[in-house]
Amino acid sequence: MSDVEYSDDDYYDDEDMYDGTQDDADDDGMDMDNEDFQIDAGPKRKPYETEHESLSQAEVERLMRREIEQTRNILGTDESVAGLLLRHMSWNKERLIEQYMDNPSKLTDAAGITIPEPPSPASAAPVRSRSSRPSSKPLPHKRPSPSKKDEPFVCPICFDDAPGLETSGLDCNHQYCIGCWTAYLSSKIRDEGEHFIRCMAEGCSIVAPDCFVHASLLRDEPETWPRFKELLARHYVSCNPSLKFCPHPGCTNTVSCPGASSKSSLLSIVPTVSCGARGIPGQEKGPDSITVAREHKFCFGCPIDSDHRPVICNVAKMWMKKCADDSETANWIKSNTKECPKCNSTIEKNGGCNHMTCKKCKNEFCWVCMGPWSDHGTSWYSCNRYEEKAGIEARDAQSRSRASLERYLHYYNRWANHEQSAKLSLELYKKTEKKMEEMQITSSLTWIEVQFMKKAVEEADKCRETLKWTYAMAYYLCRGNHKELFEDNQRDLEHAVEELSELLEQPIESDTIPTLRQKVTDKTVYVSKRNEIVLDDTANGFLEGRWKWNVHVDGFDDPDPADLAF
Amino acid sequence: MASISARRLSKELKEIMNEGCPVGITLLKAEDFVSWQFTIQVMGESLYKDEIFTLLFRFDRDYPISSPAVQFVTVDGKVSPVHPHVYSNGHICASILGSEWSPVLSVISVCVTLQSMLASCKKKERPADNDRYVRHAPDNPKKTQWHYDDDTV
């Protein structure tokens, strides 16, 4: 018994295996869409952008139908059987066809389409006979309902025995009343998110086909049917490495991004994608909605649900993990502990006396000046010995040993600061909207003309997101010219963003509005250019293999021992 | 109209009253359709000879579509059997109480399955992760995501 674990490695490993053999041209519906996309691409794609396309649930369902149709034609089964087989095989058509050709009844048994033969032929239970192509006929009911006509039917689940009780059953002919079926299917779909629903009988492996689910839900729970369809689409999307479901709450769109479907591609690109929708569907559009409704941006390559450009997924994940593990601890250590000047053990001071004795090496020292306690003579608690040589040395040693902690906190604090600013941006949006109204009143500017403010806020917000992740990147970049150039670009962007933010916070005075407008507009253009430079250069660096790390990053060469941090 | 769970449980109760429980199982308490208690004892030669355990069933409104929450009672000096699938807090790791639950199973059939689970035990020991699990276990065993990895016991 162990916890259920799952890693996204499985997901990729699987798909890596097929990379070489998969013939996209005739089996993969995505391919067509790519071609369409390229024709429409219009302006040239920037190096930090990744081609992708948004699909609605209906479009995903169309792709599913196409695959089912192709499978059906090859296997000569009906649509329902082809669909169940594909779902059973995680939509891997090649493997499905191979296994089906090998032993069709074994596969249909495993997929819950046919009833497995009892292990010994002597067994008395009359299981319906099967042909070698069991699925060629749609669900024939060879036996009448098992209950004899003269005995009234009693549902074995709810014990309802009302005369004329409507019953139904799957191919296995286990009969239950409609009400129990509806309750069972609904509970499986709604509570367990299950789309592969087996018969209610104990140990029965027959799976309910879509038409049965539909018919059972139709009367009393029609609202559960769309949920079932969504589960089917989600399952299809999760089985296809070039598709990903939009992670934003309530959104049912899917993004197709074949360029980021393999693990290796994620070493050189950051596949930030958007499903095209904004905000939370179904939420009433209030007056604030234009500013609040954010685009559904997410990373196609990893679970981080925001734009982590310019840094690649592996490094971003490493950084997130480090922050989650270390930042609080490191901050606490920094503010509450010191290291023993002699043995460097970390010590927390939990009493009032400054006379410290290291538990480990028994060294006695002063908490305030870090100098040896023996030197303290008569001036014990005033500790006016800052100039004392031993104390200075001890403090030096301490700071050296803390360098790596300080280094981490340097990057972390800047990272966290930009994140915090991004969180506050909602407020800034609201403030800005007020200012825009104010401007319209105090000056002759029209609504269109004051939009520059909103644009500026949006741009600053976007750049802070970039800046935030440049700190994660810089933390792991190994020292050298490339890192220096990277940090020059980072500095230019940060400087520009701060200047723009300051302009945005300025009070509005009617006579300075035209100059402010000019300044803000110019700065916005400049900031956007600086942001592009950072993103462009970093993305190109990944494509050229320019970036070297100071730690081991999966998929990259190990760093030179001389470049290792810490 | 009474809920399905009440109708179903009243029918099960009536059957228990009329036909009695299988050997080794006795109904201890069934005053409502929320929770029932049984005593369970392994008959014949087994590692649990002369031991009597108390089983607690808790039903929600969706019974029998959803499985009952079943565990051994460990209060008032009662203990749970020492068994590789039974935790010291009484929680049981058995697939028929989770993913393999079928609405055609009944309270009595669960009792019988658990009885045979005890009867076939070869070695009295706690699950390997007992301490870790018990420390963090939810009150209701149905909230645990069980991972069934041993079909032999």
UniProtKB/TrEMBL annotation, chain A:
Residues 1-38 have a biased composition (Acidic residues). InterPro entries: Ariadne, ARIH1-like_UBL, E3_UB_ligase_RBR, IBR_dom, TRIAD_supradom, Znf_RING/FYVE/PHD. Its EC number is 2.3.2.31. This is RBR-type E3 ubiquitin transferase. Residues 122-138 have a biased composition (Low complexity). GO terms for biological process: protein ubiquitination. Pfam families: Ariadne, IBR_1, UBA_ARI1.
UniProtKB/TrEMBL annotation, chain B:
Keywords: Ubl conjugation pathway. Residues 129-153 are annotated as: Disordered. The keyword Secreted does not apply. SMART domains: UBCc (SM00212). Residues 4-153 form the UBC core domain. The keyword NADP does not apply. This is UBC-like protein. It comes from Cylindrobasidium torrendii FP15055 ss-10.
